[in-house]
Write the structure tokens for this entry.
Amino acid sequence: MDLYCVMGNPVEHSKSPWIHARFAELTGQELHYGKRLIPLDGFATAVRAFVAEGGRGCNITVPFKFEAAALATQTSERATLARACNVLSFQGGGIFADNTDGAGLVNDIERNAGLDLSGRHLLLIGAGGAAAGVLGPLLQARPASITVANRTLAKAQDLVARHLALASLQKTELLAQDLQGLAGNFDVIINATASSLSGAGVPVTARTLKPGALAYDMMYGPAAQDFMSWAREHGATPRDGLGMLVEQAAEAFRIWRGVLPPSRQVLAELRTVMGPS
Ligand code: ATR
């Protein structure tokens, strides 16, 4: 049986084993996908041990996404831009690193929520690892503009600077801004900050929202609820990050197995399993 797993710390509540088990069932692939709690100082050792056991690939979650990218012998363009990876594949003694988070977000917005990003005005809130993982693929979707807004402006400026070449290729205007005084008519706003985890509330004012705008929180479950309620109260269409979670997994599954699983079906099943959000 081909072995896969998710490595993280914490990892207990990861939905990835459930999602990949459903993908495998629905596509008739024989594999086992587990989860591994990795000591904070033991990531490289854990990867080597998994490879020695016959592991074929793994997903990487907090806090190892940066270390995983550094460990790789080969890195995809999108993982290089993100400087982080969420998927490792082991082949011929090498470690291939990729990042499917951004593709997961874009696929969830475009396919599942039915909103074509091309020509739209986007606001990406945050400039940490989560934002870095999605900016490249958002640019690939050719929106008219992306404004990256962050509490610490310098981090937004850094992130924007290393994506300027791609932005100009895609003919997308790419800007960095402070959170203070941020306003504008955005078609899509994406919360990629950790502010809800600290109970700090929504990091932008409703002046950023156009009526009917899509307001997307990359988190799901209770962590996304404040942002979703705020969006609903201000006439926007809220969406949590559960679809992104399933779609990033689908893209990882395709990389490993060469088969694209029925992600929409699995997302619908997962929403039922998790209960109303
Ligand atoms: P992650 O990997 O989840 O992105 P991170 O790299 O630590 O975690 O980044 C956290 C992001 O959330 C940053 O953009 C951070 O803003 P700063 O760069 O200014 O620290 C943002 N963030 C965290 N708490 C916040 C808050 N209370 N209000 C606004 N932004 C917040």
